[in-house]
Design a protein that fits this description.
This protein is an alpha/beta fold and about 150 residues long. It is about 50% helix and about 20% strand. The chain has 6 helices and 5 strands. Strands 3-2-1-4-5 form a 5-stranded mixed β-sheet. About 40% of the residues are buried. The model has no long low-confidence stretch (mean pLDDT about 95).
Length: about 150
Amino acid sequence: MRYIIVGIDPGTTTGLACLSLKGDLLKTVSYKNAGKEKIIRAISELGSPVIIACDRVPVPSFVLSVKAKFNAKLFAELLSNEEKEHLTRRYNLKNKHEKDALAAAIKAYNYYSSKIRNIIKYTKDLPPDKQDHVIREVLFGKRIKDALSELE
């Protein structure tokens, strides 16, 4: 199972951005008039989200329902246009919705990156899928040792 970080910019046009747990961009896409089920399918095709990120506070109910569907952690922080530009400047994005979604995903990754890097160092001998499992479990509050013992 591939675990991912997903940024969502909901609205008439919904932006999605998916990152690996190591911060690599996997996909950005936007959908016009997409319902929750279409967004859930699009995310599921790439993996299982550990974190759903949004750049709006309060968090829209659409984002909360997608988060609940995947039992993911929520990361929400209000981002200025300048910060979104800064976070996404090296990517070629189609529109504002993809930019907002990607900025939220990157911000979430940056928030957890120190912890993720430490887990990667500690689990460097594991295959990537098992390493991602440990990252997920630790982000949800387990100790590394407990997450590792689950793998055995």
